[in-house]
Specification:
168 residues, alpha+beta, Lipocalin, 2 domains, 4-stranded antiparallel β-sheet, 3 helices, elongated
Length: 168
């Protein structure tokens, strides 16, 4: 997991310090602090989503803490403080994307044996799952999400076929 992250947010002319302290041992023990005060993170709100998008207050102003994988940022007034990009709420994980998340999982089961072909298919499967989850839950239009997930899955299976061909 990433190291401690910090943002400075100016509200009504006063700077406020927002700190995210990840916990490598337990996802639910991450900490978010505003000016030293702990903000309770609600991981139950992640159900069906690809990350955490939680509202909290900074000096009475609404803000969003967004955590997707190991990437975290704070959004105030519709703009992410860290990246400067426009804030978009995390949507529910689309049901159609389950096919693309599960398809790479078949790769390790079709391996041919041997040390390289044990670890490489597992790595391909994990990479495919992560990429498909990220793109399926992105802010792109659905048709582009589907197209990108198809391409990722096809590339993974092609890489697996090439690996099997060259290893034998």
């Amino acid at each position: 997991m990433a190291k401690t992250m910090e943002w400075t947010v100016n509200v009504n002319g006063k700077d406020h310090r927002v700190v995210f302290v990840p916990n490598q041992m337990s996802f639910t023990k991450h900490e978010l602090k505003v000016d030293g005060r702990k903000v309770e993170l609600n991981f139950k709100s992640m159900k069906g989503k690809a990350g955490l998008d939680q509202k909290f207050k900074i000096a009475g102003k609404e803000a969003h803490f967004v955590l997707i994988g190991s990437r975290a940022d704070v959004a105030v007034d519709g703009i992410y403080v860290g990246s400067g990009k426009a804030y978009t709420p995390i949507e529910k994980f689309p049901q159609w994307s389950i096919l693309f998340v599960l398809a790479p999982l078949l790769i390790p089961f079709i391996r041919l044996g041997g040390t390289v072909t044990i670890f490489a298919p597992i790595a391909l499967a994990l990479i495919g799952m992560i990429l498909n989850i990220r793109f399926a839950s992105s802010a792109l239009q659905t048709k582009y999400k589907v197209l990108i997930c198809i391409l990722i899955t096809a590339l993974l299976w092609s890489a697996h076929a090439a690996l099997a061909y060259f290893i034998q």
